[in-house]
Amino acid sequence: MDKVVEDILRRGEEQKSEIIRQGERERDEQLAQTSAMIAEHRKNAEQRAENAIAQMEQQELSSGELEAKKSLLAAQMRVMEELKTQVLVELANYPADKRKKLYGRLMQNAMTELGACYVYSNSSDKALLEPIAGVTDGGVMECMGGLVFESKDRSVRLDYRFESILEGVWNNKIQEIYSSLFG
């Protein structure tokens, strides 16, 4: 009977050991699967993070490039405005004898176009105007130089102020001016 009991105990011990080994194998398999899943999730999360970082870097780069272009454009516009102002100052400082000749031609053109008319100029240019028949002094106006003619019925104006002439030329030639300055 002792042998039977020993045999039963031994078989029970073997079954217990087999159950423990089986449980440990299942546990190891489960841990391996879990580790593989964790590694796969980690890999996917790292890839998503890298993609998000790359996208953020690209957005920041694009934003930086846009700001740089805006700054460059603003600087170019300042240069263009400074040039325009400089040209206007140079026109205002045009020699008096040349302005006097220019104003004489402008008065002849105005008489041809308008007939009898009024002429307006800035106060410093009044002395340069030589009266011609049909052109009456209309008064003083604020400008850097040039003349404005107005028909006697005040329905038509011819604007030959330096500011207006420059604005017209500037608008017609702005692309050429820009290209010559900035290529």
Gyration radius over CA: 46 Å
Number of domains: 2
Assembly of the depicted chains:
single chain
Name the helix and strand elements from N-terminus to C-terminus, one letter apiece.
HHEEEEH
Strand tally is 4
Characterization of this structure:
With 183 residues, this protein is α+β, with helices and mostly antiparallel strands. It folds into 2 domains: 1-93; 95-182, ATP synthase, E subunit, C-terminal (hypothetical protein PF0899 fold, 2-Layer Sandwich), CATH 3.30.2320. Helices cover 72% and strands 12% of the residues. The protein has 3 helices and 4 strands, in the order ααββββα. Strands 2-1-3-4 form a 4-stranded mixed sheet. A hairpin with a 5-residue loop joins strand 3 and strand 4 (157-161). Helix 1 (2-92) packs across helix 3. The radius of gyration is 46 Å and the shape is rod-shaped. The model has no long low-confidence stretch (mean pLDDT 91).
Which descriptors apply to this entry?
about 180 residues, four-stranded mixed β-sheet, hypothetical protein PF0899 fold, single chain, alpha+beta
How do you describe this structure in short?
With 183 residues, the chain is α+β, with helices and mostly antiparallel strands. Helix content is 72%, strand content 12%.
